[in-house]
Amino acid sequence: MMKVIEKLRGFDRVTVGENERVLVFEKGLISNVLSAGEHLLKTRGQKSDFEWFDITNPVFVSHVDRIMFEKLPVIADQHFVEFRTSNEQVAVIERDGVIFAVMKPDERLIVWKDAGPWNAQTFNLEESLKVNSAMVRRLGQAGKAGFMTLQPIVEGQAGLLYVDGQLIETIGPGVHAFWSVGKMVQVKVIDLRWQSLDVTGQEVLTRDRVTIRVNLAAEYRVADAIAAVTETKDFADAFYRALQYAFRRTLGARTL
Predict the structure, then answer these.
(1) For the whole model, what pTM was predicted?
(2) 3-state secondary structure string across the chain
(3) Using one digit for the tens of pLDDT, what is the confidence trace for 136-182?
(4) pLDDT confidence of 43, banded at 50, 70, 90?
(5) What share of the chain is helix, strand, coil (3-state, %, to 5)?
(6) C-alpha–C-alpha distance, residues 213 and 204, integer Å
(7) What is the three-class DSSP state of 251?
(8) How far apart are CA 132 and CA 79, in angstroms?
(9) Which of the residues 157, 206, 213, 243 has the least number of beta carbons within 10 Å of its own beta carbon?
(10) How far apart are CA 210 and CA 215, in angstroms?
(11) Which residues lie closer than 8 Å to 205 by C-beta, 6 or more apart?
């Protein structure tokens, strides 16, 4: 009976559950957002439309999300949290202290405020691509390791960091992590320890035209990691060929 009276007086009663939120539309235009509880709406005999949301899924996706923030900023601020990243930013979004999402550059995310509390840590990729060890552990635990490049460097090695194909720096021993979103990040590991190289079964013609078969063993190490990769395509192959040339030239000038 009460509902009939309310209808006749131009009211509409809407009950919203604890984990529900409702968008109210009048004449096709967004007019309000209803939180949990019972609401008595004055419709003046006009039909209202409702769009229901379950905030256990905290991400807000709607065709009126931009309109909401433009035309109803006070209501939008009451119910939503909006996160944005620039073209040189990565953001780690936390929900109640736990990593919820990682935003790439030029992204926008809207979440229900009541599904929080929410927090964001923003990282500027122009300033540094490095991810600190604490964040590396948290991203790994949250299953978000795909947003970074992880590279261990052991003693006796050097790592060459390339960003978008450009050599940036040389990194030493340790576990290094870099944001790999918005940038192409590669680490080339160079071994600086002593290594052996065998050149076997080489036939050489001596100066008195006797053919001899030579095996040669050499030890070497890389002294300059940057030169090793920038001055030759393959430094080990280049060294192998240099050894071949050296002993052919030396033995070819001698008699048996």
Answers:
(1) 0.76
(2) CHHHHHHHCCEEEEEECCCEEEEEEECCEEEEEECCEEEEEECCCCCEEEEEEECCCCECCCCCHHHHHHHCHHHHHHHEEEEECCCCEEEEEEECCEEEEEECCCCEEEEEHHHCCEEEEEEECCCCCECCHHHHHHHHHCCCHHHEEEEEECCCEEEEEEECCEEEEEECCEEEEEECCCCCEEEEEEECCCEEEEEEEEEEECCCCCEEEEEEEEEECCCCHHHHHHCCCCHHHHHHHHHHHHHHHHHHCCCC
(3) 999 999 999 999 999 999 999 999 999 998 999 999 999 999 998 88
(4) low
(5) 25, 45, 30
(6) 6
(7) helix
(8) 33
(9) 213
(10) 16
(11) 211, 252
Which residues have C-beta within 8 Å of that of residue 134, sequence separation ≥ 6?
A: none
pLDDT at 4: 45
Side chain identity at residue 251, one-letter code: L
Tokens 């949250």 correspond to what residue?
142
Burial of 228 (0-12, 13-18, 19+ CB in 10 A): buried
What's the half-sphere exposure (Cβ side, CA atoms, 13 Å) at 27? 4
User: Nearest 5°: CA angle at 81, between 124 and 30?
Assistant: 135
Position 6 scores a pLDDT of: 47
**How far is the C-alpha of 72 from the C-alpha of 68, rounded, in Å?**
5
Distance CA 2, CA 48 (A): 19
